[in-house]
Amino acid sequence: MRSLASALRPLALASLIANITLIVTGAAVRLTGSGLGCPTWPRCTDDSYTTTAEMGVHGMIEFGNRLLTFVLVGLAIATFAAAIAQRPRRKAVVWLSVAVGFAVPAQGVVGGITVLSGLNPWVVGLHFIVSIVMIAGCYALWRRAGEGDGDKIWHVPAPIRHLAWLTTAASFAVIAAGVVVTGSGPHAGDHGAARNGLDPTQISQVHADLVFLLIGLSVALWFALRATGAPATAVRAAAVLVIVEFSQGLIGFVQYFTHLPIILVGVHMLGSGLVWTSTLAALWALRERPVVVAAPAGEPAPAKEPAAV
């Protein structure tokens, strides 16, 4: 049981990586035109749960993406078991593992609706947003598994915390706008799939404006953390966020002006997961929770430094 409990944080990290990988494999499905490689759901064809030779490479790509769901399910079950095995049992960690676990079949259902709707661009976008929410859950679980259950200790004043939350909201808005841009562009996942009908140039401009806002907020956060003497870990997390955002923005501009080559689009989708994870890291670096150590009856409980994260 102890060995299982000690595996909680590595398992949570594996779930985080797997969910980011799901974005990449989903991009491969869409960019190769394999969105309807398995034309129905939950079966791959009316007669088979697996792809067939007649369905060719598109069927293999789509079915391979579906198989990743079973990896996520296995990791979710193992993570929940590790959370249950911890002594003392930590309620917050257990509930986070449950939430992440239930999100996996929910994501699978949304993916099924995506196929059954003929790759409706709004449903495809929802499928991606669910992945972003799952990444947030996995990240929270990974970080909570490495800290204590004491009251939050903030390392920065309230105005900077508000700036960090505003930056997080802007990051999510950038991703959501990117989803809408994708729904208006040429990579529909299948040659017969509908587009959302929005003007790609106009919606791309909205997306770019939000990117500029996000970078501005992130740079401001970095300067504010340096100016207020925040811990080096917080300053470093904000710096990493700015670097990742600039890299993602550069890829976005290059892909736009080179007419969306599939390799760059795929890298850009991976980048969206990295931007979101870096945003969460910058937000999380502003606080800590100490480990509360049980004390003998009648004595106050002392606290010690939180586990390394």
Structural class: mainly alpha
Number of strands: 4
The number of helical segments is 9
Distance between the termini: 22 Å
Uncertain regions spanning at least 5 consecutive residues: 304-309
Give the SSE string.
HHHHHEHHHHEEE
Mean pLDDT score, rounded?
A: 91
The shape, in one word, is flat
Rg calc: 21 Å
Can you give a write-up of this model?
The protein has 309 residues and is mainly alpha-helical. It folds into two domains: 151 residues, no CATH class; 137 residues, no CATH class. Helix content is 69%, strand content 3%. It is built from nine helices and four strands. It has a two-stranded antiparallel ribbon with strand order 1-2. It has a two-stranded antiparallel ribbon with strand order 3-4. Helix 2 packs antiparallel against helix 9, helix 6 runs antiparallel to helix 7 and helix 8 packs antiparallel against helix 9.
